[in-house]
Design goal:
single chain, alpha/beta, Rossmann fold, 8-stranded mixed beta sheet, two-stranded antiparallel sheet, 10 helices, globular, Alpha/beta hydrolase
């Protein structure tokens, strides 16, 4: 079997949050006449999750993905209270200004989708379209508790194979079919530290700072997306996004494009041929 070609490495852009803490974004492609893609990862994910998406679109438009504070190559604050979601919304809005992403097609996975809804409420003109990946205005308690437990742990794996086995046992079905796929997911989830062990690419204190209380429902924020084209990717086995929430979202937005993935949990990786083709068609239809 022929190995898949390597994914394009991003340029790194470093800038400061309003309180001076260093933030980092990844960028592919060049600014041109088309609206950029602005990609927002999940609560324990980083900008590198969007490498494959960037590879498919960087020839057509600029693609930018953000490392939130405490993730990837962005700083980790001394005070974990700085991870308050309202502060993260301000960071995202400030990042759009610093990165010259004044209007964007936003792709938001899980927590990143909530950030997209917050942008719609705070700065609606900044959005040209939104693709939500397995997130809605209601977060199911079972899923939130699973994510909190996952985010809080640093297993400090001795080997990449140990980390891969842990993810295979722990995560919901994601459609990963071979060892190379699991290895890729490990490298996106953990980084090798100075102790030669594999540690999370996020600050585990985020679990208590963000996920320790039941979140409110975000229906007014979802309704703030009324002015933009909208797509939802839904893993039917998701413990975060229920069928009932998807149905209510469709009643509010009957024009919403729905990519429904049987047998897939939270969050879909956006790289399997079926969902990637539908997502890419939606994105390429945007200006």
């Amino acid at each position: 079997m022929t190995a898949a070609p390597p994914l394009p490495q991003p340029r790194r852009i470093r800038f400061s949050a309003r309180d001076g803490l260093p933030l980092c974004a990844a960028e592919w492609g060049e600014a041109g006449g088309r609206t950029p893609l602005f990609c927002l990862p999940g609560i324990c994910r980083t900008a590198l999750d969007y490498q494959a998406l960037a590879a498919r679109h960087m020839g057509e438009r600029r693609v930018v993905a953000l490392d939130y504070l405490g993730h990837g190559e962005s700083a980790r604050p001394e005070d974990a209270a700085r991870y308050d979601p309202e502060d993260t919304v301000r960071d995202v809005l400030d990042a759009m200004a610093a990165l010259h992403v004044h209007r964007a097609v936003v792709v938001g996975t899980s927590f990143g989708g909530l950030m997209a809804m917050a942008i719609a409420a705070a700065r609606p003109a900044a959005l040209a379209a939104v693709a939500l990946n397995d997130i809605g205005p209601r977060i199911e308690t079972e899923g939130r508790e699973f994510v909190r437990d996952f985010v809080a742990r640093d297993p400090a794996f001795a080997t990449l194979d140990d980390a891969a086995e842990h993810l295979r046992r722990t995560l919901p079905p994601l459609g990963i079919r071979d060892a190379a796929g699991w290895r890729r997911l490990v490298e996106l989830t953990y980084a090798r530290g100075e102790d030669r062990r594999w540690h999370p690419r996020w600050d585990t204190r985020i679990a208590d700072a963000v996920l320790s209380v039941e979140p409110p429902e975000f229906w007014p924020y979802f309704e703030a997306l009324a002015h933009v084209p909208l797509l939802l990717v839904w893993g039917q086995e998701s413990r975060i996004l229920s069928a009932g929430t998807v149905q209510r979202m469709r009643r509010i937005r009957p024009d919403m494009v729905l990519i429904s993935l049987p047998g897939i949990g939270h969050p879909p990786l956006l790289n399997d041929p079926e969902s990637a083709a539908q997502l890419d068609a939606f994105l390429r239809a945007m200006p």
